[in-house]
Amino acid sequence: MVWGILGALDAEIALIREQMEIEKQEDRFGTTFYFGTVHGKSVVLACCGVGKVNAAVCSAYVLGTCGADCIVNVGIAGAMKPGLHILDVVISEEVGFHDQDAVMLNYYPQRAFFHADPALAALCDRACSEIPRLTGKYLHGRIASGDQFVSETAVKQSINERYAPACVEMEGAAVGHAAFMYEKPFLVIRTMSDAADDNADETYDNFIDEAAKTSAEIILHMLALAEQ
Questions:
Q1: Distance of CA 209 to the CA centre of its chain
Q2: 12 an active-site residue?
Q3: Helix or strand or coil: residue 213?
Q4: Is 134 helix (H, G, I), strand (E, B) or coil?
Q5: Coil, helix or strand for 140?
Q6: What is each CA distance from 179 to 87, 143, 160, 183, in whole angstroms?
Q7: Which of 26, 69, 91, 125 has its CA 20 to 30 A from that of 166?
Q8: Is position 198 annotated as part of the catalytic site?
Q9: Whole-angstrom distance, CA of residue 225 vs CA of residue 227
Q10: Catalytic residue among 88, 93, 94, 194
Q11: Catalytic residue (one of 12, 93, 169, 217)
Q12: What are the residue ranges in the chain where pLDDT is below 50?
């Protein structure tokens, strides 16, 4: 089994890359794809860049050309669900676009949300349960994506009214969409770097590194737990 792993920022994949036995690397699409193993599992790893198109193109390459059997998108997000705090974790149940017009539902793939793989979600849940500092700080929920850094309370309220996501970010739904088209399982793991409100810029700067590291630690633990 080959695992595809994407993060939008280098901080989101740095820890994984450090622990990866890299066999080769390939520069493409303005980034570098790393091929090798982590905990004995075959992995294709890349920093896809920020935004939906970057994530979709890199996902398609990892799932198609590179032949990954599944894809996991790790990184940071803004908390939307009441009671969700900075450095809490959201494991995707489903992902969708918060900046998509309803007319898009008339065209392929005619769906508002893409459902994450239950087996990957269960493995992620187990990994989180074995990381002591995450006790009581992770949940399964909906993740909404858009080409927008949500940093205004009014925008947050609008997205919550329309989609009620647990968190909001910029790539997960594109990864899920690509995985749906390739008929491959996917999962999105997000650690909260901010609360997607008027203070988001400052909070993001303070917590981005720790949040990114947490998501990376989770996928590393998943790989340690996964069967060959």
A1: 15
A2: yes
A3: helix
A4: helix
A5: strand
A6: 27, 15, 25, 6
A7: 69
A8: no
A9: 7
A10: 194
A11: 12
A12: none
For tokens 């998501």, the residue is: 215
The DSSP line for 150-179 is ---HHHHHHHHHHH--SEEESSHHHHHHHH
Whole-angstrom distance, CA of residue 103 vs CA of residue 110: 10
Which pLDDT score, from 0 to 100, does residue 39 have? 96
Would you state the structure tokens that stand for residue 113, as one six-digit string? 């949300």
Query: Pick from 66, 167, 184: which is nearest to 119 by CA?
Result: 184
- Whether 89 and 190 have beta carbons less than 8 Å apart is answered as yes
Buried b (16+ CB within 10 A) or exposed e, 168-204: bbbbbbbbbbbbebbebbbbbbbbbbbbbbeebeebb
Are the C-beta atoms of 6 and 33 separated by less than 8 Å? no
Where do we find the tokens 């970057």?
54
Closest to 176 measured CA to CA, from 142, 219, 202? 142
Q: How far apart are alpha carbons 175 and 5 in whole angstroms?
A: 10
Instruction: Give dist(CA 96, CA 160) in Å, integer.
Output: 13
Listed in sequence order, the residues at least 6 apart from 105 whose beta carbon sits closer than 8 Å to its beta carbon are 111, 112
Question: What contacts 117, CB < 8 A, 6 or more positions away?
Answer: 70, 185, 186, 187
Q: What is the pLDDT of residue 227?
A: 82
**pTM reported for the whole predicted model:** 0.97
Peptide bond into 132 cis (omega under 30): no
- Rounded to whole angstroms, how far apart are CA atoms 210 and 183? 33
The answer to whether residues 9 and 47 touch, using CB atoms and an 8 Å cutoff, is yes
CA distance linking residue 71 with residue 45, whole number of Å: 10
31-57 pLDDT, tens digit per residue, is 999 999 999 999 999 999 999 999 999
